[in-house]
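Narrative of accomplishments. A recurring question from our advisory board has been how the design workflow behaves on a single, concrete structure rather than in aggregate. To address it, we present the structure tokens for one chain from the evaluation set, followed by the sequence designed for it. No filtering or post-editing was applied between the two.
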């Protein structure tokens, strides 16, 4: 009976708000975002994206700084990719954790940035920023990117997707990297192309929704964490399989 009620409640809820329709990325490669809008740094300073870019490519990650789902995992995956390739924030590009919730301010951005630096102390001190802004300034950037997200007032969550935008120094959208953790070589190639003004491409589109709700409990359910555990297990199995294959092949070719 409870399961039936849950299914009925979920059907009514999705009929009113479908996060899979509300959130996504429209194909707008070559579009140019405004670089002169005013945003707030984690320390409260007023900055612009153009000033932060300072002639370098922008690696921009739309996030909620107080995210109940996977934004922190997305930033962690990007930090891991950065550590595994040659380009560095501050020297080769500017990394921006771009807050999409206008209710957040410098305090939330500072906490988000502190969590990232605590988890990855080797990240450079320069070239990494966490921003917040007004709804108008935020929408000017996300609309130009074709990045769609929506607020569900009944549960107090944004539906949005996990992705990283790679922009040329002039704000031209050159590439999207999708999912929780971009491949290091894909990140390096995308930033190099943006720096040289070469046209990017869509790559493999796998949109991972950062949103979940259980209509029966009124809380975030286990779907996202089950997915993350599954992905982690697949990665581990794939790595183990590759190691086993390498050892087996080495025995075959050993003189």
């Amino acid at each position: 009976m409870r399961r039936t009620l849950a299914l009925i409640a979920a059907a009514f809820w999705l009929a009113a708000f479908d996060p899979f329709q509300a959130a996504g990325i429209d194909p707008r490669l070559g579009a140019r975002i405004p670089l002169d809008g005013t945003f707030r740094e984690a320390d409260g300073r007023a900055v612009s994206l153009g000033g932060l870019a300072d002639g370098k490519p922008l690696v921009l990650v739309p996030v909620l700084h107080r995210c109940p789902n996977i934004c922190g995992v997305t930033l962690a995956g990007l930090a891991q990719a950065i550590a595994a390739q040659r380009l560095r924030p501050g020297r080769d590009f500017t990394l921006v954790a771009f807050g999409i919730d206008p209710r957040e301010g410098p305090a939330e951005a500072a906490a988000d940035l502190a969590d990232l630096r605590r988890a990855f102390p080797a990240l450079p001190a320069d070239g990494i920023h966490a921003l917040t802004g007004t709804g108008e300034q935020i929408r000017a950037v996300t609309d130009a990117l074709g990045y769609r997200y929506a607020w569900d007032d009944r549960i107090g969550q944004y539906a949005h997707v996990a992705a990283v935008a790679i922009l040329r120094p002039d704000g031209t959208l050159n590439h999207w990297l999708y999912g929780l953790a971009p491949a290091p070589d894909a990140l390096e190639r995308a930033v190099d192309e943006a720096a040289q003004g070469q046209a990017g491409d869509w790559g493999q589109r796998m949109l991972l929704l950062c949103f979940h709700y259980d209509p029966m409990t009124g809380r975030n359910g286990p779907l996202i964490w089950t997915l993350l555990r599954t992905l982690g297990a697949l990665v581990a199995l794939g790595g183990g399989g590759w190691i086993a294959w390498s050892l087996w092949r080495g025995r075959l070719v050993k003189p």
